[in-house]
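Form 7-S
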Amino acid sequence: MSERGGDPERGDRRGPFGFSRNVFILGAVSFFNDLSSEMVYPLFPTFLVEFLGAGAWFLGLVEGLADSVASLLNLFSGWLSDRLRRRKGLVAGGYAVSALARGSLALVTAPWQALMGWFLNRVGKGIRTSPRDALIADSCLASERGRAFGYHRSMDHTGALFGAALASVLMAALSMGYRGIFAVAFLPIALGIILLLALVKEREPAVCAGVEAEKAKLSLSLKPFDRRFKLLLLAVFVFTLGNSSDAFLLLRARQAGGFEVAMLPALWGVLHVVKAAVSIRGGMLSDRLGRKKVILLGWTIYAFAYVGFAFLGSPGLIWVLFVFYGTYYMTEAVQKALVADLVPAELRGQAFGVYNFAVSVTVLPASLLMGLLWSTVGSRYAFLTGAGLALAAMLIMATAVGEAPKAG
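Output:
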């Protein structure tokens, strides 16, 4: 795949840790955004149900509608960033919508108002995610894509850890209520947007020989992409179908391991620490060994961890399994780096839109499948099914997905 357009670092100053300034600042923006988000997200269900008096069904409606719209917007925003050959404005706009939406939760007085606020928060995520991923790929060399996406995911998880901790401290030490927390949560994301607008430089996607981005159409059609990318989507779809919400891991720890409720947040925090630690290392490993090998390694870890959760018995084993399971998250960044490897530069926005859509649209049926199996045949078989789907995805990845072009 031949690219015209020169070095993506041309005119782009290097930032700390050897990243381009764009990559470094986008990671910092993600840190502040997730810090803000995790101050709000754990509190939103009880705020909606207990404080505003909505029913549990209303919470399901909020989550379902918001996730569905975000999935569709991923497609549109990625394609639009390719069409306009500009990504920064969409990224900044998406963050701004989420910032205003979260801040508005401090003012709502009725469940429908909270619905609108949370809906707009997810709309912002749908607008920014695909153009942001494409902008990261545009702003780094092929030989460092894994490290760049790994750094970004690491900053995501670190921000989430700090956000949840900050919300707990503000509530416990300062007796701050829901509205106060939501108001404070506006500040870090506002700082992130300022950094983005001031320091991130627009990068025009390089032109790839033989591909005319102007003819790209907004659709679910995969015609512009080659077979390797399509098979990658299939493998990721199968894997994600067995990858239910991590909340089921906490439920398993509570029911099978006899964990005290007070210890569950600590267990959750340990998982976030592991996620942050392995993201950048997994990306760097993929730059050296290849994306496919690292993804297969991560999915193997996932399968073994789910088998472990199926048969776990003691609290000590649960701690070990959570740490072991967390290392699978090295694959998040590597999968995005592989997407960038397999598609023409000027179609990256659309490719990330399709990829993010394929992942997010599978999350709900994956959790429904886990819940259905848990309720009907038991948690052991539910986890074993997840492990089986991971093995099926590994088979597709190993035998059908061709190796990506060597980085560099």
